[in-house]
Design brief:
Layout (H helix, E strand, L loop, with lengths): L6 H15 L4 H8 L3 H10 L5
Helix pairs in contact: 2-3
Amino acid sequence: TKPILSLEEQEREAIGRVLEQNKGNRKLTAEQLGISERTLYRKIKEYDLEN
């Protein structure tokens, strides 16, 4: 069985996965996740997902 991930880990994985699916398109990623672009930018920085 998979280990239980914290909410923060789940959020980080979801953002990373959707960003990858959208080839780094942050506007589309934010729309699909239902968050503002500003929030997405902050979370990308917080979770070190820049690259």
